[in-house]
Amino acid sequence: AMLIGVGSEPFARPPMPELVNPAPLTMRDEFAGTLADQFTTEDSVILHAPFHDDIAFLGVTRVDRKGGTFDLVAMNQIGVQFFALHGDRHHTEIVQAIGPVLKHKDILLSIGDDLRRAYFNLLPSNDWQTDIESTYVSFDGPDKLVYDFGDSPPVLLEKRLEGFPFNPFRVQYFEYTRDGNFLYPRGIVVDNGDYHYRMIIKNRSWEKD
After folding, report:
1. Which helix (H) or strand (E) holds 119?
2. What is the strand order of the sheet 197-208 is part of?
3. In whole angstroms, what is the distance from residue 22 CA to residue 81 CA?
4. Element of type H or E holding 136
5. What pLDDT does 6 receive?
6. What pTM value is reported for the model?
7. What's the Cα-to-Cα distance from 117 to each of 36, 106, 161, rounded to whole Å?
8. Which residues 6+ apart lie within 8 Å of 124 measured at CB?
């Protein structure tokens, strides 16, 4: 794998605009209208873990939200495939992995969990409690699952499962760009509390299928 250094804060979020008479459900519904059901994304991905070298790869991921599946192919910069994953809404399968990578089967399956968190279940339910702050609104769901929406047009800023002494997971979305009627984040950061690593996903290209 290509090993490179990375800072702890890979993306800078500009100051969020003040919300004027925000309606949380309307914000959620506006964001829902910008989500593509099926897309393919090509990304530079970095796994940053404390006290370990960073691991970087190029990832091509096809996501089918309607069908509830995703497929990831991970390779180095010259196209040598490291591993491939297939997942649905609940499970991940290692389709292929080279020897040294297969030794870390638990991490590969955890990456599948992170992709599932990042790309699926992006909309809270109508009956969740909402809290309105000056620049964002929060939806508080069951089992301490929290979604934060803000900006204009409204987008999902963060999704997390709160816990003690650390959050089991946290997904942050940065730098949304528009492609027709659709919005897509150019940066995604997933903090994995189970394995204590951060996955940084820097988008290179995105296409609706």
Report:
1. helix 105-119
2. 92-97, 81-87, 69-75, 55-64, 38-48, 197-208, 182-192, 169-179, 155-161, 145-150, 136-140, 129-132
3. 46
4. strand 136-140
5. 38
6. 0.92
7. 16, 17, 10
8. 28, 139, 141, 147
pLDDT at 9: 64
Q: How far apart are CA 142 and CA 22, in angstroms?
A: 23
Q: Residue 82 belongs to what H/E stretch?
A: strand 81-87
Residues of the chain with pLDDT under 70: 1-9, 51
The CA distance from 92 to 186, in Å, is 24
Residue 7 is predicted with a pLDDT of 42
* pLDDT number for residue 94: 97
Q: How many CB atoms lie within 10 A of CB 169?
A: 21
Amino acid at 157: L
Residue 195 contacts residue 108 (beta carbons within 8 Å): no
Residue 79: what pLDDT? 87
CA torsion sign, 175 to 181 to 182 to 186?
A: negative
Report the C-alpha dihedral over residues 88, 121, 183, 13, rounded to 10 degrees: -120
d(CA 164, CA 178): 37
Structure tokens at 66: 């309607």
Report the DSSP beta bridge partners of residue 119.
none
